[in-house]
Write a structure and sequence with these properties.
about 140 residues; alpha/beta; Ribose 5-phosphate Isomerase B, Chain: A; 5-stranded parallel sheet; 6 helices; globular
Length: about 140
């Protein structure tokens, strides 16, 4: 399952992403926020992490203004590997080398087209394991 979480700055991009998923008949779980009214991003990052960790196949897409805040909060959980990615190449490496289970996007600095391309790569790229798995054990 794909878990969506955002703060007020990430809300507009999250809604565009939701519309894309709906058009592709892909089900998501949206833990909020649900408007551009100011909120505290840690609340939504934590809620998103809880839902991601409910099932090993779940992944998260978290969005805030720069992506930095959501990344910091999400990565405080030792079972979360959140990667702030500004493009598809970064998303590919996040999955292949780090087995990231949360993609963080910068809502104020990313257009819909780039976000969708980045998400597609994130969702379709597999973890390479091998030497990268050995590194993950050191986390």
């Amino acid at each position: 399952m794909i878990i969506l979480a955002c703060d007020h700055a990430g809300f507009p991009l999250k809604e565009q992403i939701k519309a894309f998923f709906n058009s592709e008949n892909i089900t998501t779980i949206d833990v909020g926020t649900y408007s551009t009214e100011p909120v505290d991003y840690p609340d939504y990052a934590k809620a998103g992490c809880e839902r991601v960790l409910e099932n090993d196949t779940n992944v998260g897409i978290f969005i805030c203004g720069t992506g930095i805040g959501m990344s910091i909060v999400a990565n405080r959980n030792p079972q979360i590997r959140a990667a702030l990615c500004y493009n598809a190449k970064m998303a590919s490496f996040a999955r292949r080398h780090n087995d990231a289970n949360v993609l963080v996007l910068p809502g104020r600095y990313m257009k819909k087209r780039t976000a969708i391309k980045t998400i597609k790569v994130f969702l379709t790229t597999d973890f390479e394991k091998g030497r990268h798995a050995l590194r993950l054990k050191k986390f």
